[in-house]
């Protein structure tokens, strides 16, 4: 009999420790308690550290649901006594025991006759109380039962503590992830929420792919661990932006503010110079004996100054227009170069109206970044990979760095940083690329561009897939399953709240 009980305890221990899920462990603990003790019912009461109360976390048996509503004050009931003393106890006639807490029976309609009650501890820390109630055959619980139940209580305590540690580590890492995203967004507040939205979209797309029953990805199924890996990669995909200089990261116009102010001061100086030149010429006219021609010349000089001033103002207006992040025309670039060929007289000699660097910045055809600035921005992907590669990921999360590293790659090799081709890009990264582009196009918080409608964004994704840059199967799933609506719904919910 003892050998059989020992085998039972070993099997129970293996079963308890085969999971790190709290609910699973606690359910198995109660099932094990009733089986091992041949009891009608069982319950697990856990300690609420803030109040010292015991609450019925799991109750197994006919009246289990009603029992779960009860709470015991510190020291209340037989379970409270065990919690206070730390000693296991057998009570074979609870109706005669003054410590018995009758409220549970009265509430549930269950009749408690006997119980064995042991503390649940781990590493000297009290976690709760495990109870087996009413021997099925009407027998009394004995000392052997108590010893076996104490052993089970220790096993349950260790299993719960392991689950607690796992959850704490999980929460710690989740906190680290959240803090990392906050660090990114604090440097670039204009993209606040982007990482979370991309993660939400990507995981929703993965779920849609998992339910696809036709096409290239009909057999693809993402399990819970793979979805967690994908979510981490998506949330952290832009972390490398911490390595990009802030003035480039936040560049909303083609010229930096200081550059624009310098050009403004320069053009004001040019206009003042023209005014001074005109005044000098007027003085020469006044000093010359020109008879009736004097007034005519003065009027001509005023008209000339007005024309020159208007011309300078028009040039500056063009510069301001070209400074916007909107697409640039070739004709405007030609005009900018002509302006740069003009010279004005400064205190230390002739100078161009615009420097080569300024013309280069203003001549950017799309966006606000020069070629060198764009290369620095694109380096954020490499920075992300370097950072994520330093984290000792678990086996189930080992692909996080490579997924995040590939989210700017395109199927035709035109992406960055490695120029990967279709089969070289992880499926998860191909999904993230679509979601990243969609959110960037529809985001309303980017200072360097206006948001576009979902319909136009979807059309752009379709055109990119036809050009062989994006995965056409995934774009179709994204569109047909209305994956994009998940962030729209969340946004509406936040506004209502």
Entry summary:
The protein has 497 residues and is α+β, with helices and mostly antiparallel strands. The protein has helices at residues 2-16, 22-37, 64-67, 77-85, 103-108, 143-187, 194-210, 224-235, 246-249, 257-287, 293-322, 330-341, 356-362, 371-378, 380-389, 400-405, 427-442, 454-466, 472-480, 485-496; strands at 39-48, 53-60, 71-72, 89-91, 115-122, 125-135, 343-346, 349-352.
Give structural notes.
- The chain has 497 residues and is α+β, with helices and mostly antiparallel strands.
- The chain contains 20 helices and 8 strands.
- The chain has 3 domains: 2-167, GAF domain (Beta-Lactamase); 188-244 and 384-496, Hypothetical protein af1432; 257-367.
- The strands form 2 sheets. The chain has a 6-stranded antiparallel β-sheet with strand order 3-2-1-6-5-4, sandwiched between helices. A two-stranded antiparallel sheet has the order 7-8.
- Helix 2 packs antiparallel against helix 6 (143-187) and helix 10 packs antiparallel against helix 11 (293-322).
- The longest helix is centred in the first third of the chain and has 45 residues, at 143-187.
Question: Which structural traits does this protein have?
Answer:
497 residues, Hypothetical protein af1432, 6-stranded antiparallel β-sheet, two-stranded antiparallel ribbon, disordered C terminus
List the helices and strands and how they pair.
Layout: H1 2-16, H2 22-37, E1 39-48, E2 53-60, H3 64-67, E3 71-72, H4 77-85, E4 89-91, H5 103-108, E5 115-122, E6 125-135, H6 143-187, H7 194-210, H8 224-235, H9 246-249, H10 257-287, H11 293-322, H12 330-341, E7 343-346, E8 349-352, H13 356-362, H14 371-378, H15 380-389, H16 400-405, H17 427-442, H18 454-466, H19 472-480, H20 485-496
Antiparallel strand pairs: 1-2, 1-6, 2-3, 4-5, 5-6, 7-8
């Amino acid at each position: 009999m003892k050998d059989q009980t020992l085998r039972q305890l070993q099997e129970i221990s293996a079963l308890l420790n085969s999971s790190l899920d709290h609910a699973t462990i606690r359910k198995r603990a109660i099932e094990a308690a009733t089986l091992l003790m041949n009891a009608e019912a069982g319950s697990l009461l856990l300690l609420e550290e803030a109040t010292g109360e015991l609450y019925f976390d799991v109750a197994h048996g006919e009246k289990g649901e009603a029992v779960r509503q009860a709470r015991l004050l510190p020291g209340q009931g037989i379970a409270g006594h065990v919690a206070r003393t730390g000693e296991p106890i057998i009570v074979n006639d609870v109706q005669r025991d003054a410590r018995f807490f009758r409220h549970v029976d009265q509430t549930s309609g269950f009749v408690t006759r006997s119980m064995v009650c042991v503390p649940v501890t781990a590493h000297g820390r009290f976690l709760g109380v495990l109870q087996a109630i009413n021997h099925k055959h009407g027998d009394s619980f004995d000392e052997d039962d108590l010893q076996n139940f104490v052993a089970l209580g220790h096993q349950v305590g260790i299993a719960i503590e392991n689950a607690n540690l796992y959850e704490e580590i999980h929460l710690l890492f989740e906190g680290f992830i959240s803090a990392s995203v906050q660090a990114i967004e604090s440097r670039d507040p204009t993209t606040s929420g982007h990482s979370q939205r991309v993660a939400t979209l990507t995981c929703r797309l993965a779920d849609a792919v998992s339910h696809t029953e036709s096409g290239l990805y009909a057999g693809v199924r993402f399990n819970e661990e793979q979805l967690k890996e994908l979510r981490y990669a998506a949330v952290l995909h832009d972390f490398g932006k911490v390595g990009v200089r802030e003035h480039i990261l936040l560049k909303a116009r083609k010229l930096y503010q200081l550059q624009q102010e310098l050009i403004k001061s320069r053009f004001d100086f040019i206009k003042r110079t023209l005014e001074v030149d005109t005044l000098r010429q007027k003085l020469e006219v006044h000093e010359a004996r020109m008879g009736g021609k004097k007034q005519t010349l003065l009027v001509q000089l005023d008209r000339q100054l007005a024309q020159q001033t208007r011309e300078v103002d028009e040039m500056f207006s063009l510069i301001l227009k070209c400074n916007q992040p909107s697409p640039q025309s070739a004709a405007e670039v030609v005009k900018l170069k002509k302006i740069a060929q003009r010279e004005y007289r400064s205190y230390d000699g002739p100078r161009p109206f615009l420097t080569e660097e300024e013309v280069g910045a203003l001549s950017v055809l799309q966006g606000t970044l020069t070629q060198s600035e764009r290369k620095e921005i694109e380096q954020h992907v490499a920075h992300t990979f370097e950072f994520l590669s330093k984290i000792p990921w678990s086996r189930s999360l080992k692909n996080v760095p490579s997924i995040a590293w590939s989210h700017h790659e395109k199927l035709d090799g035109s992406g960055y940083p490695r120029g990967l081709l279709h089969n070289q890009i992880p499926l998860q990264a191909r999904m993230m690329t679509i979601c990243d582009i969609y959110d960037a196009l529809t985001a309303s918080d980017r200072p360097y561009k206006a948001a576009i409608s979902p319909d136009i964004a979807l059309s752009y994704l379709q055109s990119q897939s036809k050009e062989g840059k994006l995965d056409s199967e995934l774009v179709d799933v994204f569109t047909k399953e209305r994956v994009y609506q998940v962030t729209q719904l969340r946004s509406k919910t936040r506004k209502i709240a």
